[in-house]
């Protein structure tokens, strides 16, 4: 950039074909689209290709793609020559309004998702909602689950805005989507900055995710992440209402908006209760074996414990029962 470092685009095969002439004249390294590429093998191949190009430590990586590309290319940047700068150009709703904030990069392993990685924020994020024009309907809606999560954990005003603009959001109105991205990014950035070391408030961003990760695991990741989050938010809020933590009617309001965005609010039939419990008990954010989750108090706020804690201990079997009945 300013000091004349070489630019290299890393993108996936689908985005490469959808946007062949974006960022012309810059070398592109292309990997096969999909979560299955977020591996050490792809990381090894990309880092080798960068070294073959003879990059030095002034090089700047441009990650052009969805959340998979951001996580993978960001991790390539974090590790090549002990850390290259990178620029995020997210092309999916999930990447624009969630994954591009917070500086987490990484890859999956057979032991689980995102288990190898680094905190290595991009120097800048350039989000252009016009890029969403070529994104398929399912991944487009998938990312909206995280926008709803941002609203329910932190911002009742944003919730109202989402309800008001649901049609324009689904029609991909460029100005409305730009505003949606600004609002979500502002909420996530505020929460992340308030708690850079993940000791407290940042766990509220995991709302819905204890159940979501369990669903993803027991269905072998055939349920897309945002869809799993939608089911997770609804189910965890049902539990919060039962425990007297969430105001009555919170789950119904949440489910109604998720459904307007075409997202599911109940788990697919036939999930195995025991496997769900075991997946939740082994979630990496648990402390000392206890399952603790951030639960809603109402739309726009999470329930705080007596000592101000951001999470509550719950029984995974009770959550699994809510999911399977
Ligand atoms: N780092 C973080 O903080 C963070 C947060 C949330 C999620 N994530 C990660 O993000 C990943 C999921 O992100 P995702 O849903 O964007 O997945 P993705 O990157 O696989 O994109 C989904 C699909 O859409 C395609 N695509 C993306 N943009 C497109 C466009 N403009 N036109 C046409 N096709 C396009 C991709 O090729 C892919 O097939 C997961 O790996 C998850 O772990 C990371
Ligand atoms: Zn998520």
Write a structural description:
This protein has 325 residues and is an alpha/beta fold. The chain is 46% helix and 15% strand. The protein is built from 13 helices and eleven strands. The protein has helices at 13-18, 40-52, 67-79, 93-99, 137-154, 156-164, 166-170, 174-194, 209-218, 225-242, 250-260, 273-281, 316-324; strands at residues 7-12, 27-31, 60-65, 85-90, 104-109, 112-119, 124-125, 292-293, 296-298, 301-302, 312-313. The strands form four sheets. A five-stranded parallel beta sheet has the order 2-1-3-4-7. Strands 5-6 form a two-stranded antiparallel sheet. The chain has a two-stranded antiparallel ribbon with strand order 8-11. Helix 2 packs across helix 3, helix 3 packs across helix 4 (93-99) and helix 5 (137-154) crosses helix 8. The longest helix has 21 residues, at 174-194. The protein is globular. The N and C termini lie far apart (55 Å). The mean pLDDT is 94. Residues 12, 14-15, 18, 33-35, 38, 65-69, 71, 91-92, 94-95, 98-99, 102, 104, 113-114, 131-132, 134-135, 139, 142, 225 line the site of nicotinamide-adenine-dinucleotide.
């Amino acid at each position: 950039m300013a000091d004349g470092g070489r630019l290299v685009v890393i993108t996936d095969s689908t985005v490469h074909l959808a946007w062949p002439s974006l960022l012309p004249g810059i070398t592109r390294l292309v990997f096969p689209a999909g979560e299955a590429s977020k591996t050490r093998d792809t990381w090894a191949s990309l880092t080798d290709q960068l070294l073959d190009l003879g990059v030095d430590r002034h090089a700047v990586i441009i990650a052009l793609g969805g959340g998979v590309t951001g996580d993978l290319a960001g991790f390539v940047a974090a590790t090549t020559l002990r850390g290259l700068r990178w620029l995020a150009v997210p092309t999916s709703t999930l990447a624009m309004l969630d994954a591009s904030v917070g500086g987490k990069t990484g890859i999956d392993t057979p032991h689980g998702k995102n288990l190898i990685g680094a905190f290595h924020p991009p120097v800048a994020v350039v989000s252009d909602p016009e890029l969403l024009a070529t994104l398929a309907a399912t991944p487009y809606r998938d990312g909206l689950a995280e926008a709803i999560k941002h609203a329910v954990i932190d911002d009742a005003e944003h919730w109202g805005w989402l309800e008001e603009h649901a049609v324009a959001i689904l029609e991909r109105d460029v100005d409305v989507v730009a505003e949606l991205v600004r609002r979500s990014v502002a909420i996530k950035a505020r929460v992340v900055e308030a708690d850079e070391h993940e000791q407290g408030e940042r766990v509220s961003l995991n709302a819905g995710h204890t159940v979501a990760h369990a669903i993803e695991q027991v269905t072998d990741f055939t349920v897309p992440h945002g869809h799993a989050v939608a089911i997770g938010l609804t189910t965890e809020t049902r539990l919060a209402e039962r425990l007297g933590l969430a105001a009555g009617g919170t789950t119904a309001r949440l489910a109604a908006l998720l459904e307007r965005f075409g997202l599911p609010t109940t788990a697919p039939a036939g999930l195995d209760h025991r496997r769900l419990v075991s997946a939740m008990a082994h979630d990496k954010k648990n402390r000392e074996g206890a399952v603790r989750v951030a639960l809603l108090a109402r739309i726009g706020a999470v329930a705080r414990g007596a000592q101000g804690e951001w999470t509550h201990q719950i029984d995974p079997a009770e959550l699994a029962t809510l999911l399977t009945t």
